[in-house]
Design goal:
single chain; 93 residues; 1 helix; 98% helix
């Protein structure tokens, strides 16, 4: 009877060890996947920060150009208004 228990015990322990071995392989694989994802996330975050800085720089340049265009358009309106008023003055004479 002891021989049966010893044989059953070794069979169960081999099965348990194999299942723990499979579990260990799965956990190692998941660990590697998590590490790869963390590296990907860090690299993506760095590129996103660089992209956002570029976008802010371009936005500031666009705002600067808009202000300059507004100033030019105001000057043109003043010039057009003054030319019209000069024409009116000359046409009245």
């Amino acid at each position: 009877m002891e021989g049966v228990f010893l044989g059953l015990n070794s069979l169960v322990s081999d099965t348990v060890v194999d299942s723990f071995g499979l579990l260990a392989v799965i956990l190692k694989t998941l660990g590697i996947v998590v590490i790869v994802y963390i590296i990907y996330f860090i690299i993506k975050t760095i590129f996103d920060i660089k992209r956002n800085r570029r976008i802010k720089f371009i936005e500031s340049k666009i705002i600067s150009v808009e202000h300059k265009l507004d100033a030019l358009l105001k000057n043109q309106k003043v010039n057009v208004m003054s030319k019209k008023s000069l024409k009116k003055k000359h046409s009245k004479k």
